[in-house]
Design brief:
It is built from nine helices and five strands, in the order E-H-H-H-E-E-H-H-H-H-H-E-E-H. With 273 residues, it is of the alpha+beta class. The protein has two domains: 170 residues, no CATH class; 65 residues, no CATH class. A five-stranded mixed sheet has the order 1-3-2-4-5. A hairpin with a 2-residue loop joins strand 2 and strand 3. The longest helix is centred in the last third of the chain and has 22 residues. The two termini are 38 Å apart.
């Protein structure tokens, strides 16, 4: 594992794992991708560490990881974190079992990941339906039919939406029962309606993360649209400064750095408000 805060990070909204996830890659890249895919978040992704486990040298691993980046499975960069220890930039290696295009990685960098279609899953009983069906174990006089559970589930779902725990629901529905209970479903409906707790205070909207991608070859930071396939224009052979000529100082890098500083300042002002 890498130091806390570093190492592999799994990209969100991935499709379920299958045996054909990396069939489109060459054998070496497919084997490395399958291994990385099963590493836990926080695992060390350096070629030196991978070379200790995989049957490839560091040079071959570095080349393979660059190929995975070009294929849309991997991006390298940094993410700004603010916690009790202060503000700092953390090196990230984001991995996606599902290959992504440059547009998706750009949206991810902005904290605006589009929805991804997931494979259809068979319908399952809801949390509310399961609790109502099991209610008769705690209070036999409140045993319900399947149809009654289905009818009452939306009422109970609203309780869960307001943060109520299963234990609180059971206690509310079973406390002080009359004797006898003539109509269990009617009693439960009345309690779910009249004893519904107030809506919780909404949480403030989450702030988008501050992320910046880096070129896989020279490490120069840049906008996602300037790093198609994770590689900058200079390393692709396009006209422009290269890391070997001088330190990166293009207007695009300066502009991006200014945006990040402005966003960090805005966050500090927001935290004081």
């Amino acid at each position: 594992m890498a130091n806390p805060g570093y190492g592999k990070r799994s990209a969100p909204d991935q499709r379920p794992r299958t045996t054909h996830d990396f069939a489109h890659l060459p054998p070496r890249e497919a084997a490395i991708a399958a291994y990385v895919d099963r590493l836990p978040d926080g695992a060390d992704m350096s070629v030196k560490t991978l070379a200790k486990t995989l049957p490839y040298g560091q040079c071959a691993l570095r080349t393979a990881l660059n190929h995975l980046q070009k294929a849309g499975h991997l991006r390298r960069g940094r993410e700004h974190l603010a916690d009790a220890k202060g503000s700092r930039w953390i090196t990230r290696t984001w991995f996606s079992r599902t290959a992504r295009g440059d547009d998706w990685w750009a949206a991810f960098t902005r904290g605006d990941v589009p929805d991804v279609q997931q494979e259809a899953r068979p319908p399952t009983r809801s949390r509310a339906h399961i609790l109502l069906a099991a209610l008769g174990r705690t209070a036999p006089v409140l045993s319900l039919s399947a149809a009654e559970c289905a009818e009452l589930s939306p009422l109970l779902a609203e309780w869960f939406a307001r943060g109520v725990t299963d234990e609180t629901v059971v206690r509310t529905l079973t406390a002080g029962l009359p004797s006898p209970v003539h109509h269990p479903a009617a009693l439960i409906r009345r309690r779910l309606t009249t004893k519904l707790p107030p809506e919780p205070t909404p949480a403030p909207p989450a702030r988008p993360p501050l992320r910046i991608l880096e070129c896989a070859k020279c490490g120069v930071p840049g906008r996602p649209e300037a790093l198609p396939g994770g590689v900058c224009g200079a390393c692709r052979g396009e006209t422009g400064p290269h890391k070997g000529a001088s330190p990166p100082s293009s207007s695009g890098v300066h502009s991006r750095a200014a945006e990040i500083r402005a966003a960090m300042a805005a966050r500090r002002e927001g935290s004081r408000a």
